[in-house]
From TrEMBL:
Organism: Variovorax dokdonensis
Pfam families: His_Phos_1
Gene3D superfamilies linked to this entry: Phosphoglycerate mutase-like
InterPro entries, alphabetized: His_Pase_superF_clade-1, His_PPase_superfam
UniProt cross-references to SUPFAM superfamilies, sorted A to Z: Phosphoglycerate mutase-like
Protein name, UniProt field: Histidine phosphatase family protein
Amino acid sequence: MSLSLLRHGPVDGAAGLCYGRSDVAALVQPTQEIAERIAPGLSPDLDLIASPRARCLLLAHALQALRPDLRLRIDPRIAEMDFGTWEGRPWADVPRLDFDAWMNDFGHARAGGSGESTGIFMARVAQAHDDWRASGRPALWVTHAGVMRAVLLLQAGKRHVEQASEWPSQSIGWGDLMAFGGGFPQRGSA
């Protein structure tokens, strides 16, 4: 049984913008190119599951158009983290004291004051991950970099982080694909 994670395509917005739960659009042509590379390798018995954010749905629908045999299900648990009042602002405009307060209590402090804590975020993603395991079915999640990092931790048996240093720092690019349990290569760009 495999779980593959596919990050959405490049977004239509300014670089450096905080847009976790914000519904920013993805660029159509690069998203279509990602779908065209991924669709041929998808198993017909795969569960195609997408975040409800427009940038993920664009890619999921492009995959489904190329592979109408796949049934799409939307799962809000695999949406990106909610950054509260920081949403829609450039990261550079987030007050340093506020950002440092979040980093200093990474597991519990709510991002942007009113957003999710990393603990809440991890618990939400863990519920979806647990349901995937219980299903016994291969799945492809069309999701976000934060969710992909959370799954890296979950796959390593870590369900909660206390320190920011515990959070995976590797780069995850637009259209990057990660797979656990077989199926696709362990990591690669689409």
